[in-house]
TrEMBL record:
Biological classification of the source: Bacteria, Pseudomonadati, Pseudomonadota, Alphaproteobacteria, Hyphomicrobiales
InterPro entries the record matches: Rieske_2Fe-2S, Rieske_2Fe-2S_sf
Keywords: 2Fe-2S, Iron, Iron-sulfur, Metal-binding
Superkingdom classification of source: Bacteria
PROSITE patterns: RIESKE (PS51296)
One Pfam family matching this protein: Rieske
Domain Rieske stretches: 12-123
CDD domains per UniProt: Rieske
Alphabetized SUPFAM superfamilies for the sequence: ISP domain
Native organism: Mesorhizobium zhangyense
Designated name of the protein: Rieske (2Fe-2S) protein
GO MF entry, a single one: metal ion binding
Length: 141
């Protein structure tokens, strides 16, 4: 995304940095959408409240790290505080990119650009540049 494109997207102030406890997903209303916001240190990440797998509410996601590929019989835990786990099927997503971890599913968690300026948190809401995989309907709806 270019700087010019970022400057033309609607920006929403969603709170102060201290409003967001570390390692906890906080649901926030911005631009008529509910989004999940996750703080790790001085960095804040925002993402859609819908898992790309079956549409689970990602604002209920657990925050963790993940196991990374490594040598046989070695285990490498990484990305602590940057992974959100779907509350329904435990699929893992990197909140920085939306990438699904482990190659289990196709599709990404939709993420939004977040910025902290002078202790205030801002998010830019946008539509995906390309069509994403549609989440399956939620059973019972």
């Amino acid at each position: 995304m270019t700087i010019a494109q970022q400057q033309t997207m609607p920006e929403h102030r969603i709170g102060k940095l201290e409003d967001f406890p570390e390692r906890k997903v906080v649901p926030v209303e911005a631009g008529g959408k509910t989004i999940g916001v996750l703080r790790r240190g001085d960095d804040v990440h925002a993402f859609a409240n819908r898992c790309p797998h079956h549409g689970a509410p990602m604002c209920r996601a657990q925050v963790s790290g993940t196991m990374r590929p490594s040598e046989p019989n070695q285990f490498v835990y990484d990305l602590d505080g940057l992974i959100v786990k779907c509350p329904w099927h435990a699929y893992e997503f990197d909140v920085r990119s939306g990438e699904a971890m482990g190659g289990i599913i196709r599709g990404r968690l939709f993420v939004y650009h977040c910025e902290v300026r002078h202790g205030e948190v801002f998010v830019q809401l946008r539509r995906p540049a390309t069509p994403s995989l549609k989440a399956s309907p939620i059973p019972g709806e």
